[in-house]
Amino acid sequence: RILAPERTMMFRVVYMSDGGEPCVHTGYRIEFNSALGPYKGGLRFHPSVNLGVLKFLGFEQIFKNSLTGLNIGGAKGGANFDPKGKSDGEIMRFCQAFMLELHRLISSNTDVPAGDIGVGGREIGYMYGAYKKLTRRFDGALTGKGLSWGGSLARTEATGYGSVYFANEMLATRVDSLHGKICTISGAGNVAIYTAEKLYQMQAKPVTVSDSTGFIYDAEGIDVALLKDIKEVRRARIKEYAAKRPGAEYHEGCAGVWTVKCDIALPCATQNELSLESAKTLVKNGVKAVGEGANMPSTLDAIEYLQKNGVLFAPAKAANAGGVSVSALEMSQNSERLAWTFEEVDQRLKRIMDNIYAQSKEAAEKYGAKGNLLAGANMAGFVRVAQAMHAQGWV
Ligand code: NDP
Ligand code: 2IT
Q1: Distance (Å, rounded) from C-alpha 191 to C-alpha 210?
Q2: How far is the centre of ligand 1, averaged over its atoms, from the C-alpha of 3 (Å)?
Q3: What is the pLDDT of residues 360-391, one digit of tens each?
Q4: Cα four-point dihedral sign 112, 115, 119, 124
Q5: Helix or strand or coil: residue 157?
Q6: Hey, which of 135, 204, 268, 393 would disulfide with 199, CB 3.0 to 4.6 Å?
Q7: What is the pLDDT of residues 290-324, one digit of tens each?
Q8: In the structure, which protein residues have their CB atom closer than 6 angstroms to any atom of ligand 1?
């Protein structure tokens, strides 16, 4: 029962390009499991989006959301739309066209989408505006909203910050910490940026970022303000980073990021980006821990190799659960029509991440996989969903 999504929706999305042409895309929403709460999970806009990709993401989301301990079910959606190179007007028209269908499926108590690859604050804004117009409702039907219209402080930072909190907890089991560690990060989007920011706060040094065309190596440490300006303000390619920062190197090819020597590797771009070959290189270079910021970035054989070689491994559904956790905190704030301070949300995020770590560790011990956080996170997440499904009958 848990393997089959409760509901799978596919719909046509047509918007007008700046040249006046109709552009046709496929939109999706997979409402996978509602045992623990309203369907919850992000929307991905990327040319690679198809039913298979969204099903794996939605399936992962069920157990991730369970681990948060909050009342959220699992879902994922998106479209095979490429935001790269599109004008602001084209993005707005696409988001509005997407919501012409999606508004029928969502609301604060049924299904609550958020961002993922290619969907950030700008896209959520355009989608929320269209949702409001179509439904006459100002409710928490989307998370990741702007701060003046129902968004939560610390949602933008949450996934990256949370994955760093998780990594620090994991290192503590070896009486170690992030202090003084050299870290490599892949990706240069939302998760990568706030992973880098939090690493500095923990006295670690991020030295790489990447996008789908290449990677930056900055031995001095990634300049987060410059990275934000390039990615969040100007929406440019990371190649520009090297042009603006003396001493930084740009290399073609994103997989090369794992050849840079580091203590801790944090894949924060996309699925299957860290292969067995990359895992071997990391181990050869003395990596101590790998923390997954992205969803399923490491291939299964890479994970096995890392674990067999004594590398601490933080699995995605546990390590990157900070984003959806703060989304659920945004839903709470919307329900009570109040906004909490940054410190309050951040403290709750830290407590949730510490709890996810503890649950994953304990479940691994309880079910005979001591030290294996991947198995522990899967089992701890599964048990809560399975118990709720049993209690609610065969529906
Ligand atoms: P963004 O769109 O902000 O950034 C994505 C980054 O990953 C970009 O640098 C992009 O490069 C790179 N990337 C995307 N696809 C590929 C690819 N096929 N090969 C190489 N690089 C690629 O997305 P997010 O930072 O939000 O998401 C990153 C990952 O984190 C995803 O796996 C997502 O599912 C996961 N995640 C996100 C959460 C969130 O709250 N946003 C929460 C939990 C997990 P380019 O610009 O060249 O495409
Ligand atoms: O993969 C994920 O957890 C997300 N993209 C965030 C989902 C959410 O609802 O905040």
Answers
A1: 12
A2: 25
A3: 999 999 999 999 999 999 999 999 999 999 99
A4: positive
A5: helix
A6: 204
A7: 999 999 999 999 999 999 999 999 999 999 999 99
A8: 115-118, 120, 159, 187-192, 211-213, 254, 268-270, 273, 293-295, 320, 323
350 is catalytic: no
Residue nearest to atom 4 of ligand 2 (CA): 42
pTM above 0.70, yes or no: yes
In angstroms, the CA 30 to CA 7 distance is: 6
Ligand 2 pocket residue status of 364, Cβ below 6 Å: no
Give the DSSP H/E element, type plus range, for residue 198.
helix 190-201
| DSSP string for residues in 20-52 | S-EEEEEEEEEEEE-SSSSEEEEEEE-TT--HH
Q: Is the CB of 152 under 6 A from ligand 2?
A: no
- As beta bridge partners, residue 387 has none
Q: Rounded to the nearest whole angstrom, what is the distance from the C-alpha of residue 367 to the centroid of ligand 1?
A: 33
Pairing label, strands 208-210, 214-217? antiparallel
Residue 225 clears pLDDT 90, i.e. is over it: yes
**pLDDT averaged over the chain?**
98
Two structure tokens written together for 348: 């709750």
72-105 per-residue burial string, b: 16 or more CB within 10 A, e: under 16: bbbbbbbbbbebeebeeebbbbbbbbbbbebbeb
d(CA 111, CA 37): 9
The pLDDT of residue 26 is 98
Q: How many CA atoms lie within 13 A of 346 on its CB side?
A: 13
Alpha-carbon span 190 to 188, nearest angstrom? 7
- For 147-185, the pLDDT digits (tens) are 999 999 999 999 999 999 999 999 999 999 999 999 999
For the chain, how far is it from start to end, CA to CA, in angstroms? Answer: 9
